[in-house]
């Protein structure tokens, strides 16, 4: 049994506490630390768990720590844990800056511990169901739209929302990033609240991502286009659909939708597949997999290096947004 604690007992932190308490076969929940009195009292009242007086007191009492604090404090919390050789689960984005993430990689290697980043959409059952069908996609389109919530405006929309899709795409496209272009608008906060990015990869794949936190409705959809197939993933409704093209040899079934490809090519039929997806809690699954990585001494599903790569691309997008904004100001 792994002794675990949580840093941060805000909205998401309390979700993590509840789920860690449910994972009784893998974790022994030791307690939490949160300097904010209201958060702490709420957690104590809801779960009857112990509140520790300091971060170090909690770290000294556990084998692994779950960091669910604001992004600005991720580096401080994680570096302190790693210097005490504790396994770390850290919410996304992994740190505020790319340099901080790079330092954490070195600290984790020195400590010889497991670090997993909370890119929870990797555990979304719809995305999991799509993975066997994804084979070298060459065009990807994502829309992640959310209704306005002041709780997320402490970080740019790229780090708040788009980074989910960046991580999912980078986990599928096994190629370096060749070129990035981006534009965005700050509407209700000091940083862009809606942004679009186009990423061109070395292998020719192109990804077009749109994220907004000022939409009238919520949407979290990704579409993957590849040779003879189109895969649609709805992260919000947890549904997945596959449309495939398959060569037809011999006499086709009269109910098949068949296309004559011309030029002596074999005709193709369209196959539609919308598999049943079992219900699951993605946060529960990622925390459980974190325990498995520690217990079995395996690489976490979302290792620290993946969190670093997603943050690096996100930072490059934000740099492009700043450059685009400055160009508009100069033109005016």
Described by strand count, sense and barrel closure, the largest sheet is: 9 strands, mixed
**Which CATH architecture of the largest domain?**
2-Layer Sandwich
**How many beta strands in the DSSP annotation?**
14
Shape: globular
Overall mean pLDDT stands at 92
Compute the gyration radius: what is it? Answer: 22 Å
Q: Alpha-carbon distance between the termini?
A: 62 Å
Counting helices, strands and paired strands, the structural category is: alpha/beta
Taken as a percent bin, the fraction of beta residues is 25-35%
Unreliable parts: none
Major beta sheet, strand line-up: 7-8-9-6-10-11-12-14-13
The portion of residues assigned to helices is: 25-40%
CATH class of the largest domain: Alpha Beta
For this structure, the CATH topology of the largest domain is: Dihydrodipicolinate Reductase, domain 2
Quaternary organisation: single chain
Task: Describe, in plain words, how this protein is organized in 3D.
The mean pLDDT is 92. Helices cover 35% and strands 27% of the residues. Helix 5 (98-111) packs antiparallel against helix 9 and helix 7 (157-172) crosses helix 9 (304-331). The chain is α/β, with parallel strands linked by helices and 332 residues long. The chain is globular and about 75 Å long. It has two domains: 2-118 and 282-301, NAD(P)-binding Rossmann-like Domain (Rossmann fold, 3-Layer(aba) Sandwich); 122-278 and 315-323, Dihydrodipicolinate Reductase, domain 2, CATH 3.30.360. It is built from nine helices and 14 strands.
